[in-house]
Amino acid sequence: MTFPQFAFKNITRNLRAYLAFYLSSSFAVMIFFMFAMFIFHPALETGYMNNIAKKGMVFAEWIIFVFSILFVLYSVSAFLKTRKKEFGILTIQGASPKQLRLLITLENVFIGVASIVTGIVGGTLLAKLFFTAGSYIVEMEPLQLYFPLKALGITIAVFLLLFVFISQFTLFIIHSEEVISLLKGSVKPKKEPKPSIPFSIIGILFLGAGFGLALFADINISSAVIITVCTVIGTYLFYSQLSVWMLKLLKRNKKFYRKGTNLLWISDLMYRVKDNARLFFIVSIVSAVAFTATGTLTTYKSMFTTKDLLYEMEFLSYVNNKDEKEQLAYIQSQFNQKEIDYEQSKIKMIETDQGSSNSPVLVVSYKDGVEILPELKSTKLEKGEGVYFGQTERGDHTILQDNTTDLQLSNQQISIKLQSIEQPILFLDDVLVVDENTFKLLKQSNELVTFYGFQFANSKENLDISQRIHDRIVGETYNPDARYFSKSIEYYQTVQLPSLSLFIGLFIAIIFFLAAGSFLYFRLFTDLYEERKKYKSLAKIGLSEKEMVKSASIQMANLFFLPFLLAIVETGFALQVLQREGGFSNVFQSGVITMLGFLGLQVLYFITIRFSYIKNLKEYVYLNKN
């Protein structure tokens, strides 16, 4: 038997233990490959939004790559710990450190190559769906399939080197131990976990403070930081101290503790929770962030409010703007270069403030108002009357009451009687349409500003033009002589960017969830050897198969769903803050949908791993009579 054959047989003999590592690695490769296909897509070479999407995907690639390093490192280390006894026997039989290194390297290369092949095949099959979903969520032009030579080469090179280098690094764990230590394997007696009561109480106080502030405190930067710090510290102490203390209290309840299989799962769970406190802490915090962010971004997507505005593009030029003609010519040239049919409106207005709120308002004569809004023809304005188009509130500041009949203009001895308050028609400022006599009177003491409005089709698809015009008129700094607005830029900032973050974050969150389940899988199978011996001994004194399954299932359910439940609680308080302070009316609905999706994924993973774990226990304890 050659050494590669020996390494291959080692994998096939331990296939169950390697399965989660192989599948999770394949999934990480698949996601990395699909993101790489997105990054190197020829259609993303031009276009402002395409360039932003490409940068976002590059950032996601780095996140996935760093995560893959940590994941592979943890996985390989877990396998090496379970096989120390095997390495000790090989060392006694004459295996040199060089041969052990070759064995582990070959095993990791075999698994790595299999994961890379599976991941690339899966990514290729799902690429069209990935492109379609990405284009739909980010609202870009649909991407077509292509031959991803660069993505293929980078994916193979990155992950193959990763598997090789990680295996070499983890060999130091083995070389630093004596043969006698290797022969003992991972079986080391553990002391019973002893929680600190003061730290447990501190954990309760921190969690209570974080949740209480989230419910009742006024949210600003300092209070948000305090809430975050309290929640993070409280979560860590919950797993490392408080949960162990609660299990210890259960042990003191003799009636409950000695009932059925409670004695088994409570005792074992104390060790498992204590050993996995850091993992549970990370899972809870990242899950809560993922739930909150996904729910919030989903809500953002439904809050775009510029669809009822009259113009796709607005340009307001003040009297001191010496570059007005040049700026207007530049706007027109951009439309002409892309052969965009557009309609241009030019209106002289007066910009003033409301007396009560100092909010800016653009005053328009009835004659010009009818030109841009023909439905005003049915409204007859007498002297001193007007129609207001704008918001009645901004944030927590009331501009107008719904029943307001008079509007006092700042620095004016004029009070306008409002016939009605309508929805906004411009983005830059609210609009007040007044009769001709009132407009002439206001013009005597105010300088006129020039408003240009542009109407054209498919504004979302012309983000690059809008961005160039914005840079030309407004520039990187504030321009006091001109103001500019574009629906496509507003839509990009309020919908497309959050949607891109949602798209990227969703896949990263899914990877993390699968990895968290895999970590628990590795942990379960690391302890499987001792668990089988324990249940074998208990079976000899009367433990039934049903009782064994119940005890093991309760332990696994706690390990899988305890972090998830705490993440849901933390997400609920975070969403409460967003709904109260941010004005998100349906954020809870989006958050619940997000959490149900992740819960379904977690349940599916739990059922799969439980089936494999219980099957292994049954085969050893009850089917193997020797």
UniProtKB/TrEMBL annotation:
Classification via PANTHER family: ABC TRANSPORTER PERMEASE-RELATED-RELATED, ABC TRANSPORTER, PERMEASE PROTEIN
A GO BP annotation: transmembrane transport
Domain of life: Bacteria
Protein name: ABC transporter permease
Major site of localization recorded for this protein: membrane
InterPro entries membership: ABC-4_Integral_Memb_Prot, ABC3_permease_C, ABC_permease_BceB-typ
The keyword Calcium is annotated on this UniProt entry: no
Domain ABC3 transporter permease C-terminal: 62-169
Pfam families in the record: FtsX (PF02687)
Transmembrane segments: 20-39, 59-80, 109-131, 151-174, 195-217, 223-247, 279-300, 500-524, 556-575, 587-608
Membrane topology category: Multi-pass membrane protein
GO CC aspect terms: plasma membrane
Family under the similarity heading: Belongs to the ABC-4 integral membrane protein family.
Organism: Virgibacillus dokdonensis
Gene that this sequence comes from: yxdM_1
